[in-house]
Write a structure and sequence with these properties.
Layout lengths: L1 E8 L5 E4 L2 E6 L7 H14 L6 E5 L5 E6 L2
Parallel strand pairs: 1-3
Antiparallel strand pairs: 1-5, 2-3, 4-5
Length: about 70
C-alpha cells in the first residue's frame, strides 16, 4: 500500500495514520540519509513488518514523501 507521509522533526515520537496519510515525528537530522533511515525503521515497527518491506517512492530530500509498505 502507498502512503503520503508528512515528516516533523520532533522528539515526541508520534505516528498518526489516517487512511493513506501518515504524519510522523523523527529526531534524526536530515543529513546523509539519517532521517530517511529513522523514518523507515519507525514505519516498520509501527506496521509490524521488516525494514526491507518499506520503500520511499518519492521525496527523499523533502518533508513530504510517498512510501510503499509491503506486508
Amino acid at each position: 500500500m502507498r502512503y503520503s507521509v508528512s515528516v516533523r522533526f520532533s522528539s515526541d515520537g508520534r505516528i498518526d495514520v489516517s487512511g493513506d496519510e501518515i504524519a510522523i515525528s523523527i529526531e534524526s537530522p536530515p543529513e546523509r540519509g539519517r532521517a530517511n533511515r529513522e523514518l523507515v525503521k519507525k514505519l516498520a515497527a509501527h506496521f509490524g513488518t521488516g525494514e526491507d518491506r518499506i520503500r520511499i517512492i518519492s521525496g527523499l530530500a523533502s518533508r513530504k514523501k510517498v512510501v510503499e509498505i509491503l506486508k
